[in-house]
Amino acid sequence: MNLLASKSKQIGDFLVTVLNDGEMNVNLTFLSGIDEKSAAKIQTEAGISNVEQIDINCYLIQGHGQTILIDSGTGGLNDTGGLLLKNLARMGITPNDIDSILITHAHPDHIGGLLNNEGEPIYKNAKIYLHALEIEYWQNDQALEQATERGKRNFSLVRRTLKAYSQKINIFDKNEPIAGISPIFLPGHTPGHTGFKIGKGESSLLIWADIVHFPHIQLPDPTISIVFDYDKEQAKVTRQNLLEKVVKERQLIAGMHTKKSGFAYIYNSDQQNSYKISYLN
Length: 281
Known about the structure:
Layout: E1 7-11, E2 14-25, E3 31-32, H1 36-45, E4 53-63, E5 66-70, H2 84-90, E6 100-102, H3 108-111, E7 127-131, H4 132-138, H5 141-146, H6 149-164, E8 169-172, E9 181-185, E10 194-198, E11 205-207, H7 215-218, E12 225-226, H8 232-248, E13 252-254, E14 263-268, E15 275-279
Parallel strand pairs: 5-6, 6-7, 7-8, 11-13
Antiparallel strand pairs: 1-2, 2-4, 3-12, 4-5, 9-10, 10-11, 13-14, 14-15
């Protein structure tokens, strides 16, 4: 697994850099609304050799005297990803340089990199920001009891992480966690799933987190969902509404499971309610 040269874009007062944490394999049978064979065909036609492999991106934001991360990658959990710290080091940045970490949601490929192998905080100086509903959900014992075995492992990781950073946790709702960075509530994938908008107007960037996992499959048909969605119907509505909005507003986007290059625009395709993606070079 090779480290990828980072890519940066100036957004208003902030320099935003996409940092790839590696890849993970996601079985195409986890998708709902399309059969495995058809999904594989779409991936192949898009030039993707490993049709079940998706990227894991994190974003570094520098500006106003602050060094901020959005998400932390997997931390190498289950031998997946774990390149974020190495990519930060290539930029001359250590974990102790990170002031704040904005968490889009608390799935393992987004918070797994917050703890070391001993269960201790890696980012000792960082404040951690999560949506209020995200914390509420993962601390809910009834939700834990109803979870699958995979889900129970996720609950355990979230609770260990929240405990380890207990003195550093900050909750946001509609308020800006950091001046110039606005939370955009995008429910469905998880109860508190949140994107972050940086800058204003035509020069802004929306980091939309997990609106899609397989862009070439879910953008042409936004009704296709994935097993990781907490509320599939809400996730579909959120995805469809957001896609319509970013196309209308010509909004630059970035995602955790878009290509390693990170930044892209979304366009209407030839069919109604169908979209395609164009990555920035």
